[in-house]
Design a protein that fits this description.
The complex is a heterodimer of chains A (149) and B (179). Chain A contains 5 helices and 6 strands; from the N terminus they run H-H-H-E-E-H-E-E-H-E-E. Chain A is α+β, with helices and mostly antiparallel strands and 149 residues long. In chain A, strand 3 and strand 4 (102-108) form a beta hairpin. The longest helix of chain A has 15 residues, at 111-125. Chain A is elongated. Chain B is an alpha+beta fold. Chain B is 31% helix and 22% strand. Chain B has 5 helices and 5 strands, in the order H-H-H-E-E-H-E-E-H-E. Chain B has helices at 5-14, 24-31, 36-49, 81-89, 120-133, and strands spanning 52-59, 68-74, 94-99, 111-117, 141-152. A 4-stranded antiparallel sheet of chain B has the order 3-4-2-5. Chain B is elongated and about 60 Å long. Classes of the chains: A alpha+beta (149), B alpha+beta (179). Chains A and B meet through helix 2, helix 3, strand 1, strand 2 and helix 4 of A and helix 1, helix 2, helix 3, strand 1 and helix 4 of B.
Chain lengths: 149, 179
C-alpha cells in the first residue's frame, strides 16, 4: 500500500468534494495528477479494498430497511444464504457464530415491499426470520479510520 | 418518505456509486436529464438534512486486514438504554451503535454495536474496554463474530423498475470469503 493509496482509502470517506471535478480537487490537495487519483481508486476498487465511491444513505429516510436474523441448520446455511442474496433488497449478508447464524440487511422502496420480501423468504426457507428494525441510532456510519499495520 | 419522484430518480442513479470519471456528477446527471449543478445541490442538501449519512470512499474492512468483525448485543434495562447507547456510540472502537426491539423469548438484546479489529483478541479487548467505560459490568451481552460474508454492497433504496440503469461500478456483490 503506497502513500497515495493510504490517503485515498482513509481521507475521503466523508466530506468528499461536491465540486464539478472532485477527483481533480483531491489530486490537487495531494499534489498529484487527477489521472493518478482515478487510476488509484479504480485499482483499489478492482482489488476489492474499495466497495465504491459514493453515497451511504440513511435508508429508512428513503424507503424501508431492517436487520434480519435467522437460525439456519448448518447444512442448509449456504443454500439459505444464496436464497437471501438473490433479492436485490439484500445489501449485507453475513454468517455469525451464534444459534442465529445468518444476519442480513434488507432495504426496500416501501414498507409493503419489505414485508413481502420477508414473507417470501420465510415461505421459501421455512425458517421464521427475527425482524430487528432500527429504533434509535447512537452512532451511524461516518466512515472507518484505518490504522496501518 | 417525502422524496419526490425526481429525487428518487437521482437516488437510483447514484446508489451503486459514482463513476470514476473527471466530472462524475455531470455523468450521473446525464443519465437522468438532470444538470450537474442540480445533482450537486441535491446531494449537498441530503448531507445537510441527514438523508445521506456520508458521501465518499466506502472501504471493505476485510480486504484491508481487519479480519475480525463482531456484532456485540446487550440487554440493557429500557430506562437506561438511551443513556448507555449515547455513551457507547461515543467510544472510538465502536463503528455503529443502534437500539433495536427485543424479540422475547428468543432474543433479549436491545442494543447493538459493531466492532472491527485486526484479530479476535483485539476485538475482545475492545469489548472489555466498553464494559468498563460504559459501566456494563454484569450486563448480559454476547459477541457474535462474523464468519463468511455472503454479500456486501450499498443499499438499493429504489426498485429496479424506478432505476435508470445500474452503473457498471456495481461490483460489490462479493463472493463469500472463507477463513
Amino acid at each position: 500500500m503506497n502513500g497515495l493509496e493510504k490517503s485515498l482509502l482513509n481521507d475521503f470517506q466523508r466530506d468528499f468534494p461536491l465540486s464539478a471535478t472532485p477527483f481533480a480537487d483531491i489530486a490537487s490537495g495531494l499534489e498529484v495528477d487527477e489521472a493518478e487519483v482515478l487510476k488509484g481508486l479504480s485499482e483499489l476498487q478492482a482489488q476489492g479494498a474499495v466497495s465504491r465511491v459514493g453515497p451511504v444513505f440513511q435508508t429508512d429516510r428513503i424507503g424501508a430497511s431492517t436487520l434480519v436474523a435467522m437460525a439456519v441448520p448448518d447444512e442448509r446455511l449456504e443454500d439459505v444464504a444464496e436464497l437471501v442474496n438473490a433479492y436485490p433488497e439484500t445489501n449485507h449478508n453475513y454468517e455469525r457464530e451464534h444459534r442465529f447464524n445468518l444476519w442480513f440487511v434488507l432495504t426496500a422502496s416501501t414498507e409493503k415491499r419489505l414485508r413481502d420480501v420477508l414473507a417470501d423468504i420465510e415461505r421459501r426457507s421455512g425458517i421464521e426470520p427475527l425482524v430487528l428494525p432500527m429504533a434509535e441510532a447512537y452512532h451511524i456510519d461516518l466512515g472507518f479510520p484505518l490504522q496501518w499495520a | 418518505m417525502g422524496l419526490s419522484a425526481r429525487e428518487l430518480t437521482l437516488v437510483a442513479a447514484i446508489q451503486a456509486g459514482l463513476p470514476l470519471v473527471s466530472r462524475p456528477y455531470a455523468a450521473i446527471g446525464a443519465k437522468i436529464s438532470m444538470s450537474e449543478a442540480e445533482v450537486i445541490e441535491r446531494l449537498s442538501m441530503w448531507l445537510a438534512n441527514g438523508i445521506l449519512k456520508r458521501l465518499g470512499v466506502v472501504v471493505r474492512h476485510r480486504e484491508l486486514g481487519y479480519q475480525a468483525n463482531a456484532m456485540v448485543v446487550w440487554d440493557i434495562p429500557d430506562d437506561q438504554v438511551q443513556a448507555v447507547g449515547k455513551r457507547m456510540g461515543e467510544q472510538a472502537v465502536v463503528t455503529l451503535c443502534y437500539q433495536r426491539p427485543r424479540r422475547l423469548p428468543e432474543w433479549p438484546y436491545n442494543l447493538f454495536c459493531m466492532i472491527h479489529g485486526r484479530d479476535r483478541d483485539v476485538v475482545r479487548g475492545h469489548v472489555d474496554t466498553l464494559v468498563r467505560t460504559c459501566g456494563l459490568e454484569g450486563v448480559p451481552h454476547e459477541v457474535l463474530f462474523s464468519r463468511r460474508r455472503f454479500k456486501q454492497r450499498g443499499a438499493r433504496c429504489v426498485d429496479a423498475g424506478a432505476r435508470s440503469s445500474d452503473s457498471m461500478f456495481d461490483g460489490a456483490q462479493s463472493t463469500a470469503v472463507v477463513f
